[in-house]
Amino acid sequence: MKDILNKLLILRTPGIGPVKYRSLLNEYKTDENILEHLNLTDDFIDSVKREMDNAYNMDIEYICDTDTRYPIGLSSVKNHPIVISVRGNVETLSKPSVSIVGTRHSTVAGMNFISDIATEFASHNFVVTSGMAMGTDTAAHIGALRANGNAQTIAVLAGGVDYIWPLENESLYYEILERGAIISEMPVGMMPNAQNFVQRNRWVAAISDTLIIGEADAKSGSMTTARFAIDYKKRIFAVPGHPSDARSEGPNSLIKNGNAILCSGVNDFFGNKKEEKNTKNTDQKNEILDKLGMIPVSESVLANLVKKTVSEIKADLVVLELQGLIRKQDGGYVLN
């Protein structure tokens, strides 16, 4: 733990990131020599020790880039994090991974498409990596969690691994902890800021050999992730969409410019599969989505349409609302 403490003391010092750390290590040879040069105050040292104590109490583990458990894809890119914090199943980091990103304002059809792809990858023992944002990211994580087994998905956060953001994904956060991992390079307890989301996007692009981009505006964070993936020479697939929809501008441009392969579904990755009737895709939640549109529908009407009682569909309505798929307004529920 002393080795991790020394690294964190250096990395938590204002103005020192991976680039500066490596420069200092090249000059001073050891972490101990760097710390002597920095001459840190007792208060600062105590604050870093408190962070580590908090991490220990929440079963959060620090992993250095010299650790064999450190993600191979991440370690292969320049200026990767020296230390990451991990909450959940650490073994998740050692599995082959696919990254999936897209807009927070995804359509229901777009989310279902991404979710099905994520399920297929997880079923083939791939970890699905995303950023736990609303919309496409949420669909990717949920799709992965539908597959059997553990260690199925990784959420890369822009804040500390203990800081749940967005709050609407609190239940998803804890599902990921049970069957995957939450990772970040930011201090435990830190609230995310705008700049850190760009860094988060870098690591989502870096950690996997393949990036799949769903619906995404041309100037979205997902397109930033795609540009990082291009720089890292990753294999990129993009889901095309209607030219008049702004959410299709990103993936359509990647395909048009030759930076991405057109993604038409799971067959692009796992060969031809006979279409099978998937009862999970016709479960109660999807029945509810099928009955909603832009006109509000009340709980009682929805219950009648899906041939259930109001009490039976209430829990599903809450889940769908938390996932950002529907919203409640005067008169009932509508699709987001």
* Fraction in beta strands: 5-15%
Q: How would you characterize the largest beta sheet?
A: 9 strands, mixed
Helix content: 40-55%
From the 3D coordinates, which CATH architecture of the largest domain would you assign? 3-Layer(aba) Sandwich
Explain what you see.
This protein has 336 residues and is of the alpha/beta class. The chain folds into three domains: 2-57, no CATH class; 90-270, Rossmann fold; 279-335, Arc Repressor Mutant, subunit A (Orthogonal Bundle). Helix content is 45%, strand content 14%. The chain has 15 helices and eleven strands. It has helices at 2-11, 18-28, 31-38, 42-57, 72-75, 108-123, 136-146, 170-179, 194-207, 221-231, 249-256, 267-270, 284-290, 299-305, 310-322, and strands spanning 60-64, 83-88, 97-101, 127-130, 153-156, 180-184, 210-213, 235-238, 261-262, 326-329, 332-335. The strands form two sheets. The chain has a nine-stranded mixed sheet with strand order 1-2-6-5-4-3-7-8-9, sandwiched between helices. Helix 7 packs parallel to helix 8 (170-179), helix 9 crosses helix 10 and helix 14 (299-305) packs across helix 15. The protein is globular.
